[in-house]
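Teaching assistant's notes for section 4

Start the section by putting this record on the projector. Ask students to predict, before seeing the second block, whether DUF3887 domain-containing protein will look compact or extended. Collect guesses on the board.
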Amino acid sequence: MTAALRELAARTEALLASRVLTAPDGGADSIERAVRIQAAADDVVRAVVQQARRDGATWQVVGDALGVSRQAAFQRYGKPTDPRTGEPMNTTPLQGAAELAVAVIDDLAAGKWSHVTEQFDPTMREGLPEEALAAAWAQLVGLSGEFEGHGEPEVARASDVTITNTPLSLEAGDYTARITFRDDRTIAGLHIVEGRTP
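Reveal the predicted structure now:
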């Protein structure tokens, strides 16, 4: 933890000194330095959380201190072990998963059913053919009106897949599009659930 604290102190001092020692650059240099400070501060938080866990703090205690749920704290700072192999699990979400989710939602709203089903993995393709996907979207529109837009996707890694939760707004209802992606970018799950998920 002391190494992380030293790095944070050095980066903070560098930022403060840069305001005096450098010529105005439109703020780009200061922004880059501030981002490095943020990364160093994140390293300090990670080290403190790991120490707290070694000292017996529960994920509930950690989450409360961070102002998030215990699950969110674990997902960010935990080190899960794969029960199948005993090896550390990959906790890094699929790169670009948020953009993939938005593209799927845009295709659904535009009625591009075949474009969505072409991205399904074999199990999804067998279980949810194009006609069934179109019927499900039609039922959603029948219940809550036309699609109005979506919010920012939340992305998390869960075992071998990346799960995205994207808020949807229809004329008369709010939903969440939960789309699961495999590492090869195929869709392993697609659910539209009523309400906004936390």
